[in-house]
From TrEMBL:
The keyword Iron applies. It is found in: Membrane. The lineage of its organism: Bacteria, Pseudomonadati, Myxococcota, Polyangia, Polyangiales. CDD domains: Delta9-FADS-like. Residues 248-267 are annotated as: Disordered. Signal peptide: none annotated. GO terms for cellular component: membrane. Belongs to the fatty acid desaturase type 2 family. It comes from Chondromyces crocatus. This is Fatty acid desaturase. One of its GO terms (biological process) is fatty acid biosynthetic process. InterPro entries: Acyl-CoA_DS, FA_desaturase_dom.
C-alpha cells in the first residue's frame, strides 16, 4: 500500500507541476503570480520532479519551438520525424541538454520571458543531486516494498519528467480524435485526461495555444485547469484569459466540425 500511495502521489505531483509551472507558466504565461509564488512554484517543481528535474527556461524554449514547427522537420520532438518512441526521446534529450548548457542559441522569438533561478537550476541539474534523489526513491522501496516486482516501478520515479513529455508528444500526435483541422498531427487522446492532467488534449491546445483550459467540448475534462481555477479564486494566481469567452469561441469552432475528424491510429 505504501508503494502504491508513493507512486501515485509522486507521479501526480510531478506531472501537475510540469503542466502547471513548466508548460502553462514558463512556456505560455497563461497566468501571472507574485515573485514569491513564482519562486515557491519553481522550488516545488524541483522537489516533485526530483531526479528528473527539467530547467524551466530550456523546457519553455523547446516547447515554443514545438508550437512553431509542429510536426515539421524542425520540430524538436515529433513522432512524424522519429523512427520510434525512444528515438524521439533521445533527440529531445539532446536538444534540451544543449539549451541547458547554452550550447544552442535559440531564435530570439523563442527565448525570454521565462522564470529563471540560476542557483536552483545548477543544483537541480547536477548529477550528484539527481543521483541523491534516485537513491532516496530506492531506499523508500527498500523500506516498504512487499514484492520484488515493485522495484520495476522505480524508473517511473527516476524519469517522470522526460517520460511525461515523451508520452504527451508521442500519443498526443498519433492517437485520438481531432476537434480542429490543422497542418500538424495533433490529437486529443483522452476525454478525461487523468494521466497527464490535461496535456493529452494536444489538438485543442495547438488550436488555442494561450488558452489555460485545454478542454474544449462539454465532455472533455482538464484536471490541471480545475486546480488553476481554485488557485485563481483564492488569489494565488491570476489567469490570463478568462475561460468563458475562450470556451465560447472554441465551442463555436468545434461545433463547426461534424464531431471528431479523426479516429485513433497512426498519423
Amino acid at each position: 500500500m505504501a508503494i502504491a500511495l508513493f507512486l501515485i502521489a509522486h507521479s501526480t505531483l510531478a506531472v501537475f507541476f510540469q503542466t502547471f509551472f513548466l508548460h502553462r507558466y514558463a512556456a505560455h504565461r497563461m497566468f501571472t503570480c507574485s515573485p514569491r509564488w513564482e519562486r515557491a512554484f519553481y522550488l516545488l517543481t524541483w522537489v516533485t520532479q526530483g531526479s528528473s528535474f527539467l530547467v524551466p527556461r530550456a523546457y519553455a524554449v523547446l516547447h515554443r519551438m514545438h508550437h512553431a514547427y509542429s510536426d515539421t522537420p524542425k520540430d524538436p520532438h515529433s513522432p512524424r520525424h522519429a523512427s520510434g518512441f525512444l528515438s524521439m526521446m533521445w533527440k529531445t534529450k539532446e536538444r534540451y541538454h544543449n539549451l541547458v548548457i547554452r550550447k544552442e542559441t535559440p531564435e530570439p522569438r523563442f527565448d525570454g520571458g521565462t522564470p529563471e533561478w540560476p542557483a536552483l537550476d545548477r543544483l537541480g541539474d547536477a548529477w550528484l543531486v539527481r543521483v541523491a534523489w534516485g537513491t532516496a526513491y530506492t531506499l523508500f522501496y527498500v523500506a516498504f516494498a512487499t514484492a520484488w516486482w515493485q522495484f520495476l516501478l522505480l524508473p517511473v520515479h527516476y524519469l517522470i519528467g522526460p517520460m511525461h513529455g515523451a508520452i504527451v508528444n508521442w500519443c498526443g500526435h498519433r492517437y485520438g480524435y481531432r476537434n480542429f483541422d490543422s497542418d500538424d498531427d495533433s490529437r486529443n487522446t483522452l476525454v478525461f485526461d487523468f494521466i497527464t492532467l490535461g496535456e493529452l488534449f494536444q489538438n485543442n491546445h495547438h488550436k488555442y495555444g494561450q488558452r489555460p483550459n485545454f478542454a474544449v467540448r462539454w465532455f472533455e475534462v482538464d484536471p490541471a485547469y480545475q486546480v488553476m481555477r481554485v488557485l485563481d479564486a483564492v488569489g494565488i494566481i491570476r489567469l490570463g484569459e478568462k475561460p468563458s469567452r475562450a470556451r465560447r469561441l472554441a465551442g463555436e469552432e468545434a461545433s463547426s466540425t461534424a464531431g471528431p475528424v479523426a479516429t485513433t491510429g497512426e498519423a
